[in-house]
Amino acid sequence: MKSRAALIYLAALFLMQTVVCPVTAEETIAPLELPKVEASFQPPYYSTTYEQPTDPKEGQLQIGVTYTLWIPEGLKQVRGIIVHQHGCGSGSCTGSVTAAHDLHWQELARKNNCALLGPSFHQAEKQNCRLWCDPRNGSNKVFIESLKKLAKLSGHPEVATAPWCLWGHSGGGFWSSLMQMEYPERIVAIWFQSGTAYGYWTNDEITAPTIPEAAMKIPMMANPGLKEKDNKRFSRAWTGSLAMFEDYRAKGAPIGFAPDPKTGHETGDSRYLAIPFFNACLEMRLPDQVGEALKDVNLSDGWLAPVNSEETPVPFADYQGDKSKAVWLPNKTVAMAWLDFVKTGAVNDTTAPPAPTDVKVDSSTGTITWTAPTDFESGIQSFVIERDGKQIGQLPEKPTNRFGRPLFQNMSYGDTPVLPLLKFEFVDKTAENGKTYKYQVKAVNTAGLQSK
């Protein structure tokens, strides 16, 4: 008999990654009802929904979608948008409603004066994922129109025209690889998380897009799980990603290949490489003035390493092998993180997280609150609460994550926080009336390091 943990894992795998057959035009399927996150409807969050049409016209998106945008408080101009696009299946759609609330991805956005966007398609279990993950079926137009609506809702008109970083898991990678061909001038960088349409169009299963020259100038990273390689169900995520890497790299594109040795189709701890990768690309490509064109990538500024190896990357000029077949990495920081990742499935961090601030106590209830920046390298695992120098609690009490390092917000199969979302709040239930206490809160990052 399989263990309970294994059964839970298989159930999650089925729910989140099932891709069903196309439905006939006569069938009417009710849209998926997504869980509501109340915070998504008040600043700094903004939300807009495209409802599933009852009588869709040709070329019109047939599946509803909700877009939730987070903009850092006090930001005057949005320089770019980080799009965290989920994969296929009703489980992935449901889990995606918290994407814009992820503290670690928010820190990437904040650091670069960007916004964070979480799309959530209303794909019911029996609906074909291709109805949305192929943007030519209408999701491209709805995406553009929704950004215009969010620009008005947020009072940031530049949101409508800001460039994008595209992170896509599975079907989200499929979507990103086709958006790349339609809007290359708008894309800062792309992270293909176990997904691309490349292997489908080269196999004549979908209409092949025209590949513009600008599409091969976008920094990219293909990140399949090593366990997908020999998996009957998910092997195409591996073969498609590798074939895409080899073809694009031969064309001179700045693309890397980062196989995760610990995972299959789940996202695992890939965020610890994806976030510094996007950070490097944003620093490299965002224009000096909002509204100007993205800066070009200078390939020779990057670092190179042999594909499917654990060899230490070297500067572009020092690489002795065939440069057109080597993994391209944007800078030394990402290169060393890549080396950690392909060896261990995670990235090393030796720096303590920033300390929480603004600790307050409501003496009537014993409620302690605080604010805290997120550790950029490793995120937040937990907070330790001390009273008079002694630990009285930890939040969460037992940090968990079935798919990677334990996280304060936990994490789904598709790299999103798990509901309910925790607040920076702890209740001291053992405090005695009339006594005065000194409270301290310390942050712990996912590398296990504690703030001072």
Secondary-structure map with pairings?
Elements: H1 4-17, E1 45-50, E2 65-70, E3 81-85, H2 90-95, H3 103-111, E4 115-121, H4 130-133, H5 139-154, E5 164-169, H6 171-182, E6 187-193, H7 198-201, E7 220-223, H8 235-250, E8 255-257, H9 271-285, E9 303-305, E10 314-315, E11 327-329, H10 332-344, E12 357-362, E13 367-371, E14 382-387, E15 390-395, E16 425-427, E17 439-444
Helix pairs in contact: 3-9, 9-10
- Stretches where pLDDT falls below 50 for ≥5 residues? 1-26
Strand order of the largest sheet: 1-2-4-3-5-6-7-8
Radius of gyration: 22 Å
Assess the beta-strand content as a share of residues: 15-25%
Tell me the number of strands. Answer: 17
Shape designation: globular
Question: What is the distance, rounded to the nearest whole angstrom, between the alpha carbons of the first and last residues?
Answer: 47 Å
Strand-and-helix sequence, N→C? Answer: HEEEHHEHHEHEHEHEHEEEHEEEEEE
Largest sheet: 8 strands, mixed
Secondary-structure content class: alpha/beta
Record keyword descriptors for this entry:
single chain, 452 residues, alpha/beta, three-stranded antiparallel sheet, globular
Describe what you observe in this structure:
- With 452 residues, the chain is an alpha/beta fold.
- Helices cover 24% and strands 19% of the residues.
- The protein contains 10 helices and 17 strands.
- It has helices spanning 4-17, 90-95, 103-111, 130-133, 139-154, 171-182, 198-201, 235-250, 271-285, 332-344, and strands spanning 45-50, 65-70, 81-85, 115-121, 164-169, 187-193, 220-223, 255-257, 303-305, 314-315, 327-329, 357-362, 367-371, 382-387, 390-395, 425-427, 439-444.
- The strands form 4 sheets. Strands 1-2-4-3-5-6-7-8 form an 8-stranded mixed beta sheet, sandwiched between helices. Strands 10-9-11 form a 3-stranded antiparallel beta sheet.
- Helix 3 runs parallel beside helix 9 and helix 9 (271-285) packs antiparallel against helix 10 (332-344).
